[in-house]
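Prompt: Have a read of the protein record below and flag anything odd:
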Amino acid sequence: MARDRARSEAVVEGLGGGGACARVILCDISKESAVKQAFKWIDRLDVLVNNAGVGLVGSVEETSLDDFRRVFQVNVEGLFLVTRSAVPLIRASRGSIINVASVAGMVALKRRFGYCATKGAVISLTRQLAVDYATEMRVNCICPGTIQTPFIDNLIEKYFPGEEAKVREEMRSRQPVGRLGTVEEVAGLALYLASEESSFMNGAILPIDGAWTAV
């Protein structure tokens, strides 16, 4: 499920043009009615990856109530709505849920008050779901460090105009390996968690962060 039709259709095309292989379902996961409608198209589900999210920069004093609610609406409530609809299907297939949180849920980032709170919530929800459904399905969580994606590009452009080079260097240097991660590296971990090779992993919180949280 996605909101960007053009980019989603490009992914489907890369997978062989869709059909039985892949299909785009547009959905605003922050809206309960939209999530319920999207799941009417799904009759079997083996793996769910909860990867939707929005960012927010600001200390508690800089964070408005509207912005705080919005980041929770997408990052936490959206995950709840999709997961609630998906659980009966995942239980039926004895499948796997993979939540994408962030190292921001494991360690504090300056001026990320609302964002850190949402990612901490995703980590806690992962553990709780794993305990409730331990014998029926698996629920694990990936916590990326800073990954080179349009999300990062847009965040820098929005919150740090004129300081782009400085902020990018700060993002690289806070990860001891000295670079940003790649989407392929995170996808590789997600594939492992979706596979039978990880069948004994349940409730795991896995950083993939270039040793950021090891310091």
Remarks:
- The radius of gyration is 17 Å.
- Residues 65-93 form the longest helix (29 residues).
- The chain has a mean pLDDT of 93.
- The first strand starts at residue 47 and ends at 50.
